[in-house]
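Exercise: predict the fold of this chain.
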Amino acid sequence: MTAHATGFGPSSDGTGLSADIFNSTVAGFAIAAAWEVGAFDVLNDHGVIDVPAFCEKHNLHLPSMRSMFAALGSAGVVVRDAADGGADTVRTGSAFAEVYRDKAFFHWLTIGCAELFANMPGIVRNENRVGGFYRRNAVAISYACKDINRHSFDPVFWEAMEALDFDFGTVADLGCGSGGRLAQIAGRYPNVQGIGIDIAPDALRDAAENVAAEGFGGRFDFIEADVRDLAPDPRLEKVEVLTCFMMGHDFWPRERCVTSLRRLREAFPNVRRFLLGDTARTTNIPDRDKPVFTLAFETAHDLMGVYLPTLAEWEDVFEESGWKFLNARAVRVPADSVVYELA
């Protein structure tokens, strides 16, 4: 941020707070793009990237990539070496480590939810909120959530898994996305089989391909279904460990959540542990102090008309819906995220 970004007064040269907000918006898209084309990983591994050589290797448009790095430079994510006038040597900037850690949040926002936010002027009008009034990129969201899970939820998830006091043979993942969690479980538990359930056929196709590429294809079934309303299936009766991450809020509002959780008990009659990880609506955080992801997450779900419960509301539904609350393990980022252990 520039010195003008403190908000103490307007700038007369177009380089003040408004410019910072505007340029940061462009930088958000550039962060997602740099990660997806592989440039971020090169910078993370080596600290420097030769832009023309990288473009030649990956068949990328050099002028576009130069502008992408300029956008990143505007936010301090990278520093461009312009000594030769071409700015074709790019190094990590002061903000790179933090942004690289949070890159998937930017991808979720600028690619996964791009159309949702672009249509905000129409979505806020009540007369337009009928039928399928919004769209998101399910594959892109799955791509981002895989990384979010890995950095945010996975460390806490594995703590809960390692604390299980029983052996199990079958696991099911609700909202399995690209299948990353199932592949991880297969890698750690060689004798375990699993089921992935998701409402998005594109995500399921990717999940099947991904677990097969990891060598676990024969150990998993994939079911296209709405996890809020699962039909009886003999395959589900074998499940002993049930997992659900970053989609539990789709069960809400409260009455529907209780009904959905009860149906899960019926659909999975032999489940011994339900690990439910989700991000709740934050409370008492001033607008100017919202941490990364929180503002976008809460705004997106309000636009979609999806109710986001608070942590207190979550903990109020378990007993009524037939689940016994055992433990709640806090997740550092996103804010008010948790892994619930239910039995």
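Check your answer against the key: Residues 1-9 have pLDDT under 50 and may be disordered.
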